[in-house]
Design a protein that fits this description.
Structural class of chain B: mainly alpha
Oligomer: heterodimer
Structural class of chain A: alpha/beta
Strand content of chain A: 25-35%
Shape of chain B: flat
Largest sheet of chain B: none
Radius of gyration of chain A: 16 Å
CATH architecture of chain A: 3-Layer(aba) Sandwich
Helix content of chain B: over 70%
CATH class of chain A: Alpha Beta
Number of helices of chain A: 6
Radius of gyration of chain B: 21 Å
Order of helices and strands of chain B: HHHHHHHHHHEH
């Protein structure tokens, strides 16, 4: 894919709140829309709040919009307590758009993990990701760091083909946002870290060296 | 104790604290003037460090509401230091009226910073809540509250500034007694000045609800300790500097806990150095 994500893959972006994980989802959606892909954005936030955020990163989603499965204001309503309905809705959407390239952004995993048994979510995700692969979709999901036990984070990482880790690192007296590709299907493990800056012109990434 | 930034934080607390203790043990006469200067000099680095960490964390974050939360934490630390030191700097001033004016001004600025902090923190906590709960309908309540506080503090600051600049004794005395002979000013100076404390109520609710958010709870914990220490200083005559310093240290811990910070492991460090 043009964004650098392998075809038919599921990518997990982890990081603390506020670091900008969602921005990767916004750009992923915007690029998809520009290419004519079908894009589904699943969020528990109201659409207007996401659009405010999107604007902050200099992204214009006024002309081409994804299909919103959102807590409020979307074409489809996201109900945090109804996992079965969420699973059914996503599968149905994938099926209806199976003739197009599909991109799915899921910004709901942390809330799902907090409100359900972790095993239930693992099963739900496992099923969802295999459905997505069946319809040649690429899934990008975000997960909050600092809200779940380390073993949950590790288990979640096992379910995905690629894991991008965004973290705040302490170097001397500075706080540095660094990015690392922990794993990516089809690419040998990358040991290096990257500095990144999220701005209105996109994401600037440079290799990090001490 | 794993990093030099933490070591520096502890040193900025321990060294001045040791100086304060030694001067006390060796019976250095602490006159009011010397005390206020000591407070200024000795506590400034600790509070500056707390502000620095809050602003540095802000720089590293990308989402607006979390950046504002970091800014509010830094602003709160700055206002605590400025208001406490200005109040103590002027406490022995022969010009009692001027001292009262500045005290009200400093107190008002501190409460405004506290309300801004509460407002932003409640907004940030909503975003991390899995059910997106609007604590005590804060998104609706905050607007009239900000309006009421703006009008009330606008009147208050204009009156204090006017009285202080023109050295109007009648106004300055009224600021001290809270009796202006005018219902609007009386209500403003005696009751509405405390309106920013309303912000503490949703913060308490957020604290109980935020079981899922370990980062927010840790941040709150340090902040509560700092605020308790600051509250304790109002009853202290002995050991004021130590407690005020400790409050600064805990504000620094609160700034550090705004977001989870990671460290590169020794192996990773070695690997990066050879790249």
């Amino acid at each position: 894919m043009a964004d650098g994500y392998p075809d038919k893959s599921a990518i997990l972006v982890t990081g603390p709140p506020g670091i900008g994980k969602e921005a990767l989802g916004y750009w992923f959606t915007q690029t998809g829309l520009a290419q004519g892909d079908f894009c589904l954005y699943v969020t528990r936030l109201p659409v207007r709040e996401v659009l405010q955020d999107v604007k902050g990163f200099g992204i214009d989603m006024n002309h081409k919009v994804p299909l919103w499965l959102a807590g409020e204001g979307g074409q489809l309503k996201y109900d945090v307590n109804d996992l079965a309905s969420l699973s059914f809705s996503i599968k149905d959407i994938l099926k209806k758009n199976s003739n197009r390239r599909i991109r799915v952004v899921m910004d709901v995993l942390s809330s799902l993990l907090m409100l359900n048994q972790s095993e239930t979510i693992y099963k739900f995700l496992d099923q969802l990701l295999s459905d997505a692969k069946q319809y040649d979709a690429v899934v990008l999901a975000t997960l909050e760091e600092g809200m779940h036990k380390p073993e949950i984070l590790t288990a979640m990482q096992q379910l995905f083909d690629g894991v991008v880790e965004m973290r705040l690192y302490e170097e001397g007296l500075r706080v540095l946002p660094l990015l690392r590709v922990r794993k990516m299907r089809g690419i040998p493990p990358q040991p290096g870290y990257f500095n990144f800056i999220l701005g209105k012109n996109g994401m600037e990434i440079t290799p990090y060296a001490r | 104790m794993r990093d030099r930034s933490e070591i520096l934080g502890v040193c900025l607390f321990l060294i001045p604290a040791a100086v304060a203790v030694i001067t006390r043990i060796y019976g250095v006469v602490v006159t009011p003037d010397l005390l206020t200067n000591l407070i200024l000099v000795i506590t400034a680095p600790t509070y500056c460090y707390a502000i620095y960490w809050a602003l540095d964390t802000r720089k590293a974050l990308a989402v607006r509401v979390y950046r504002s939360q970091a800014l509010a934490t830094g602003l709160l630390a700055l206002m605590v230091w400025l208001s406490y030191t200005s109040i103590f700097e002027l406490s022995g001033s022969p010009n009692e009226q001027l001292s009262q004016g500045v005290t009200v001004f400093a107190f008002a600025a501190l409460l405004l910073a506290l309300f801004y902090f509460a407002d932003i923190t409640v907004k940030a906590s909503r975003r991390s809540d899995p059910l997106l709960r609007d604590t005590l309908h804060w998104s609706k309540v905050r607007i009239p509250l900000w309006l009421a506080i703006s009008v009330s503090y606008g009147i208050l600051l204009v009156v204090v500034a006017y009285g202080t600049i023109t050295n109007n004794l009648a106004i300055l005395n009224a600021i001290g007694t809270g009796d202006f002979g005018n219902a609007v000013f009386n209500i403003d100076f005696n009751y509405l000045i405390y309106l920013p404390f309303v912000g503490v109520i949703p913060l308490v609710v957020v604290w109980f609800r935020a079981k899922w958010d370990r980062t927010l709870r840790r941040h709150f914990l340090w902040l509560i300790v700092a605020l308790v220490m600051l509250f304790a200083t109002t009853f202290l005559t002995v050991g004021f500097i130590l407690v005020f310093l400790a409050a600064g240290y805990f504000l620094y811990r609160a700034s550090r806990s705004l977001a989870p910070l990671s460290r590169l492991t020794r192996d990773e460090n070695a690997e990066l150095s050879t790249q």
